[in-house]
């Protein structure tokens, strides 16, 4: 994780670009649909989550590509450490640099889209639970396409269907808060999906890496 953090922070554009993408999308949406607070509040959660989903795809092709090109990925398969543990480390680094900043930016995005204040906490909680799943699923797709010359389009086709349940449950949690009902069910479901994803994704990434480097 220290190695990946050091390497990624040398390419600051890989960290800044996804965050700028989210801010630009959230800023432009009121200009497109109008500044009416009722309309913006209704679509705020969907806009923020769709921007988060698409930003997760930005640069995801490079998650394993550089290590594959310089031979580091092949060396990782020969280390005595289980490859799934190394894959989990890469997933956590990806989340620290892309998912966690989104959670921190959530209040600003909610303010720009006039989301009622009482829903801010649930929005941040859904992002906190959901963005690790984005990183994990992105890692699976990146590992499957790492040996392809240009796998960006294929990566998007593989991942977007997997993101749909996450988008539905996260939006439903915030919507429940806005209508005055409990969002506990959706939040617990997201938490369970996060645990399941983070448990199984490293194994899937390890298997995909072995297939790609052989």
UniProtKB/TrEMBL annotation:
- Where is the chain membrane-spanning? 15-33, 39-60, 81-113, 119-146, 153-174, 186-209
GO MF term list: heme transmembrane transporter activity
Q: Which NCBIfam families match?
A: ccmB
Ordered alphabetically, the record's keywords are:
Cell inner membrane, Cell membrane, Cytochrome c-type biogenesis, Membrane, Transmembrane, Transmembrane helix, Transport
Could you identify this protein by its name?
Answer: Heme exporter protein B
Q: Which PANTHER family match?
A: CYTOCHROME C BIOGENESIS B-RELATED, HEME EXPORTER PROTEIN B
Q: Which organism is it from?
A: Pseudidiomarina sp. PP-1MA
The family assignment reads: Belongs to the CcmB/CycW/HelB family.
GO cellular component terms attached to this protein's record: plasma membrane
A GO biological-process term: cytochrome complex assembly
* Superkingdom of the source species: Bacteria
Indicate how the chain sits in the lipid bilayer: Multi-pass membrane protein
Task of the protein? Required for the export of heme to the periplasm for the biogenesis of c-type cytochromes.
Q: Where in the cell is it found?
A: Cell inner membrane
């Amino acid at each position: 994780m220290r190695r990946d953090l050091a390497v990624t922070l040398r390419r600051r554009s890989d960290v800044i670009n996804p965050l700028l993408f989210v801010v630009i999308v959230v800023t432009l949406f009121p200009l497109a649909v109008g500044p009416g607070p009722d309309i913006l509040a209704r679509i705020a959660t969907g806009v923020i989550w769709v921007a988060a989903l698409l930003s997760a795809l930005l640069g995801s092709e490079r998650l394993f590509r550089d290590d594959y090109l310089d031979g580091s990925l092949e060396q990782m398969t020969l280390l005595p450490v289980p490859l799934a543990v190394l894959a989990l480390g890469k997933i956590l680094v990806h989340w620290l640099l892309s998912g966690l900043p989104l959670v921190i930016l959530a209040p600003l995005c909610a303010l720009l889209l006039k989301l009622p204040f009482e829903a801010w906490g649930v929005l941040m909680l859904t992002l906190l639970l959901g963005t690790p799943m984005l990183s994990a699923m992105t890692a699976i797709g990146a590992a499957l396409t790492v040996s392809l010359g240009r796998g960006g389009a294929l990566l998007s086709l593989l991942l977007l269907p997997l993101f749909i349940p996450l988008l539905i449950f996260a939006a439903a949690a915030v919507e429940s808060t806005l209508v005055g009902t409990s969002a506990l069910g959706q939040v617990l479901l997201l938490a369970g999906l996060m645990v399941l994803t983070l448990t199984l994704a490293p194994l899937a990434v390890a298997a995909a890496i072995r297939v790609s480097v052989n």
